[in-house]
Amino acid sequence: MKDILGKAVDAGVKSGAEYVEARAQRLFMTMLALKEDRVEAAKQGIEEGVAVRVLVKGSWGFASIGAPNAGTLTKAASSSCKMAKAASSRLKDPVRLAQAKAVQDRIVLKPRKNPSEISVEDKIETTLAASNSVMSYDERIRNCTIDYLDLSGTSFLMNNLGTYIEQDKLYVWTRITATALEAGVFTFGREEIGSTAGYEIFDVESPVKVSEGVARRAVEQLKAKHPRGGVFPVVLGPRVVGTFAHEAFGHLAEADLTLSGSVLDGKLGKKIASEMVTLYDDGTIAGAFGSFKYDDEGIPAQKTQLIRDGVVVGLMHNLETAYKFNVKPTGNARAEDFRVEPIIRMRNTFMELKDYQFEELVEGIESGYYLKSIRGGQANVDGTFQVGIEEAYEIVNGEVRKPLRDVSISGNTLETLHKVDAVGKDLELSPGRCGKGQTAFICDGGPHIRVKEMLVGGST
Amino acid sequence: MAALRQEELLELAESAVNSALRKGADEAEAAVFQESTTSAGIERGQIVKTSRTLDLGLGMRTIISKAVGFAYTNVLSSRTAVENTVRKSLGLARASKPYKDWKSLPAGKIPSSPNNTYDKRIANLESEDLVEIASIMLDAAARTDGRANPVEGGANASCSFFVVANSNGVLGSDIGTIVGCSLATVGNDADDVTPVCFDFDFERTYAIDPERVGKEAVRLAVSALKAKTIETKTNQVIFTQTALQELLYFTLINAVRADSVQRNQSVFKGKIGDMIASEHVTIYDDGLLDGGLRSGKFDAEGVPHQKTLIIEKGVLRNFIYDNYTAKKEGRESTGNATRAGYFSTPTVEATNFRITGEERSPERLIEEVDDGLIVHLLQGAHSSNPASGDFSVVAAPAWKIEKGERTFAAKGVMLVGNVFQMLKNVSALANNERKLDLLVAPWVLVENVKVIGK
User: Fold this and answer.
1) Range in A295-309, A334-348, B18-32, B73-87 with the lowest mean pLDDT
2) Which among B52, B387, B390 is the nearest to A179, CB-wise?
3) Does the domain formed by B6-91+100-223 have CATH 3.40.50.1820?
4) What's the distance, CA B87 to chain centroid?
């Protein structure tokens, strides 16, 4: 592989590129989809592919071809240079890249249980057991969907600055979704398990146990009421804090989006949150679903502080934005696969813990909500966000009471961060997948926190 | 890997099916996708990237004693790699569990050909041509108003071949092109930042208007400046196509899929023939729509595309089916199997989900609103409850309509309600039909939508 990539890099340099990077992958996947007790799909695949990216006169050219072939890739490198030149003719502000140290490394993973060595029969039994655990939980459970994915293999990266990295990839993931129905009320539960360590994650987080929890949540919500809409004090659980850290704040701090006019533009060094808030994007947590050793530009992953005691102290960068901000790249450039170019993505994004007990967060609230887990969320670069809540409870006179359903929260991210007045001591990370044109495996999380005022939308 | 010719793709699919039968499959299906895409990308107001990609692969579905296996590969250069994929698929079928309702793969039928789904001019576009399209869009944007900045967007063109063969007589190939451009803008005036605004144009033939897209994306962002909060009340709301697509994809479109109905996840179960929407609502799923973005000769299993009546003047008429869900009920597939690529197994999906418009212009539709909103984009629609249809979403950008006139941009607005209830409250539609992915629709006016403001 090194030979093929080397030829492409040489061809790019010869065609006048300032920067050339050639990537390849050789990946093996197993995917299962179960619906109720039926194995809807048992799939395996091989994906081999190469891509080359060049920077010519401040403009990018990218070409991706299928299976590796030296001749085709070399041609692709030259034609990318030609394409980039065509685009550069109108450029006012040419792209430049931050300096980065050349790296030569080979990352070999040695999982205790390599998913590629586990038989597909075993994987089917494991997911079927999880499915049975959901379906047999209660007669009001209507559906169960289980998705399973494992991926293993190697990625290769070479550039014209002397970097050559061979890096093993390993992901194990499953998602359990349950629905319940009673008297025309539909409810949901969902949970994901994900790891970059190995198949042993299922020994720690038993799919059968997790499935029971999912089923229980769906059933409990059947008797839940819709909330009263309006502005209330809320306690957010780690899942909700994580989604908030990722969706509402994190995307604003991806330097490409900051430069595109997100509300964080010009806010570096400024106070945008209460002193209680410290926030990280960390690619180095062992085994976490958003961790890796090197990003797809060959920069080592690191722990990047985004907010310290309420002040914005950093953004997430690739080589291009690091040059613009005159900082070091942070190792956030990730490409989903050989078909696409690397862009700025999050890794494991979380709010740092402080010292409040859960009871202390709740005790002062006369009338408010405890929002525990999320269904989904979305945010806009103008700093508005919306998060749909799956599991919620009312808080009355300092106590967590009845469950609620179909709750959502929305507001302005920076205003909300200013209203965080207490942060708990229990940090929890959850795996997930983030979409930004491409899919990336990530984690998000935090401790329980209290927000003085939050706009809560209900359905009545 | 170099691109393959249509005959080579057909030969590959056929030989893979035959190989699977020889190795012990009861039934086998090969799907080959080849797609080449050329694009020019805009970031922060300038064209900074171009790309060209070729993706080609084979997906192999085999059935042994009613158990289904699937394997795929993008390594097609050697016979061995293809043979290994066939073998792997069979191995998975043997490891998997039988579907008790499995009948058979679809039988071969002669499909009709929709018009305007392929244009050689698109297939021949070079990256320089796409840079030109993107430039026209940016120039038009810059001329329109300086208070809005293009943030991202671009132009792209793709040409795809799809070949499917099975052991039950299906053998077909289809070729299609698509060209499009889009521009996202943010209005920025002093400290006033607008939500992202957006315009687009996607076509199957080389007939896009990048000039209009550039102008419109800027015009929207500028009019989103100086947004004001509004009060909480029940209003009339006009949903534009971009807002409708987000709202309907996870709810209505999901609810008419036969797999949702069969799994008790649809509120429409047992409601064929019932009045489930206002009489203004007529919807077809039309896989043969002239120039439709999802039009083609046949679906992902080789079943001919067709036009299926879903809702007729408010009455629910049909669901959409793939081969498996149809045969489970002893009926025919409606040609609604889809795949994301060679790496996917078929699932049920709408083709062109077309909401039929009415006579009036969009301007007339606005005039019919006494007190309401017009909403262009929604945030959080994917967190709707797909089964119940309950939603609670942020509407941004959105504009207030007072006495038949669009007056000012509204901020901090949430819409709360239920999609299926909303269908009953549709009171009028405009005639400005547009295509956006699988949705084909005009603007739609809905009465009694709960709008939460400050």
Assistant:
1) B73-87
2) B387
3) no
4) 34
Give the separation between CA A81 and CA B245, rounded to whole angstroms: 38
Q: Which residues have CB under 8 Å from A187's CB, separation 6+?
A: A179, A180, A181, A218, A219, A221, A222, A224, A405
Mean pLDDT of chain B: 94
The answer to whether the Cβ–Cβ distance between B343 and A45 falls below 8 Å is yes
Res B1 pLDDT > 60: no
- Tokens 């077309």 belong to which residue? B354
Give the pLDDT of residue B387. Answer: 77
In angstroms and rounded to an integer, the radius of gyration of the C-alpha atoms of chain B is 24
Name which of A26, A18, A62 is nearest A341 in CA terms: A62
- Asked if B70 lies within 8 A of A142 by C-beta distance, the reply is no
Model pTM score: 0.92
Q: Are the CB atoms for B78 and B34 separated by under 8 Å?
A: no
Q: What is the amino acid identity at position A329?
A: P
What chain B residue is nearest to A389 in terms of C-alpha separation? B383
Instruction: Output the 3-class SS for A115-164.
Output: HHHCCHHHHHHHHHHHHHHHHCCCCCEEEEEEEEEEEEEEEEEEECCCCE
Vertex A224: Cα angle to A223 and A226 (nearest 5): 140
d(CA B206, CA B371): 40
Residue to test with chain A: of B66, B188, B414, most A Cβ within 10 A: B414
pLDDT single digits (tens) B159-180: 999 999 999 999 999 999 999 9
Q: Which residue ranges form the domains of chain A, and what is each CATH number? A: 2-222 (3.30.2290.10), 230-457 (no CATH)
Report, as ranges of residue numbers, the positions in chain A whose pLDDT lies below 50: 460
Q: Does residue B432 come out as left (phi exceeding 0), alpha (psi in the -120 to 50 range) or beta?
A: beta
Angle between helices B79-95 and B6-22 (to 10 degrees): 50
Q: Which chain B residues contact residue A121 at CB under 8 A? A: 95
d(CA B302, CA B350): 15
The alpha carbon dihedral of B328, B342, A341, B157 has a sign of negative
Given an 8 Å threshold on Cβ–Cβ distance, is A67 in contact with B75?
yes
> Which residues is A403 bridged to in the sheet?
A393
pLDDT value of position B250:
85
- In chain B, CATH 3.30.2290.10 covers 6-91+100-223
Rg (CA), chain A: 24
CA B434-B250-A243 angle, to 5 degrees, is 115
Q: Locate tokens 């403009």: which residue?
A: A59
Partner-chain residue, chosen from A44, A179, A384, that has the shortest CB–CB distance to B396: A384
CB contact under 8 Å between A382 and B194, yes or no, is yes
Assess contact for B127 and B43: CB atoms under 8 A. Answer: no
Would you call A72 and B2 a contact, using CB atoms and an 8 Å cutoff? yes
Q: Which residues of A touch B46 (CB under 8 A)?
A: 90-93
